[in-house]
């Protein structure tokens, strides 16, 4: 049974989500402020965090920063509808995805399942009696081990969030080819890319900073205007 940590000061919403998640066979931990949520995230075995931005004591952005100091657990941010600033800041600090409020419990559960399916491919494959892919993907100095969900650059392990790993894996599998943002969103986030959604751009900007440069000084992930992104082969 997978464990979801809900961090939100809206008691009624949290109870509603908790009940819905438990009906969907999740174990649920609850915190109503950022400090308590950070403690739970560090002390408990958590599979994914659903984190509200607006909270007392420690807001969602500060809570996210503190959790990321010790954990790469997947995090979904709950943001005010239309508040692009909080969304971009959250993604830049390592959130895996966001859901605008108000949203239905069904939508939140769908986002949770989409991320967990990609974070734990080995478990999902075992459930379907399918062997997980364990052949490394090598593109220049980049090596990806899908079964371990580990990526290295020149032998150094990259500290990637779950969504960053998913995006890099998709690009590596299609090295030398342009992958559209729509395809990247569907593959890495498990959802279509909404209009004006900059999440893929922000995630890829973060990945670029974590990767090394090519011998000619270029970033190995290139933006192809109006088409998408491409991981260069060398």
Notes on the structure:
Helix 2 packs parallel to helix 3. 41% of the residues lie in helices and 21% in strands. It is globular. The strands form three sheets. The chain has a five-stranded parallel beta sheet with strand order 2-1-3-4-5, with helices on both faces. Strands 6-7-8-9 form a four-stranded antiparallel beta sheet, with helices on one face. A three-stranded antiparallel beta sheet has the order 10-12-11. The model has no long low-confidence stretch (mean pLDDT 90). With 234 residues, the chain is an alpha/beta fold. The protein has two domains: 3-119, 3-Layer(aba) Sandwich (Rossmann fold), CATH 3.40.50.2300; 137-231, Arc Repressor Mutant, subunit A (Orthogonal Bundle). The longest helix has 15 residues, at 105-119.
